Amino acid sequence: MDRTILKNQLETYRTPYEEEAAFVKDFAELTLDPLAYKRERLAGHFTASSWIVNKNRTHTLLTLHRKLGRWLQLGGHADGNENLIEVALKEAGEESGLKNLMLVEERIFDLDKHIIPERPHVPEHFHYDVRFLIEADIDEPLQMSDESISLAWFSFDAVADMIGYNPSILRMLEKTSKSEILL
Known about the structure:
This protein is an alpha+beta fold. The protein has helices at 3-12, 18-21, 24-30, 84-96, 156-163, 167-182, and strands at 44-54, 59-65, 71-72, 74-77, 102-103, 110-116, 125-136, 148-155. The chain has one domain (3-182): Nucleoside Triphosphate Pyrophosphohydrolase, CATH 3.90.79.10.
């Protein structure tokens, strides 16, 4: 998936979730910026994430993010790579130690535009997070990276209790439950 494919997918992306629909146009416009895939774009830049589920679609893998102190899906910065599927898979592998990650489909699973707080030498900015649905074997050993405080599989029933209120995680959870019907 390169910049042109992403732009085309974004132009046709439809979602019934109002909060997600509100920023789809922002993502499409960002694809036109030559710095969109680099951290140097201080107003905001693309990131890619993996919503990792087991094959039976009963659990999801989340990380307790070291810098943000919240349970989140695995992902990270594009760092110049315009193939966000590659970025999502690379970050998921690095952050979990999983070797057998399987992309469910090459289309966007979810989008989220969220603010990242200011840190030393980095101003407050937006992450334009493009998310993909990934399957993994729940029995494959995990290896936590330095970016995490913890890493664990959670049953879908336990996710809301673990994460507190995070509308984008709850949205992906709901999308996963709806996608079960289509399988």
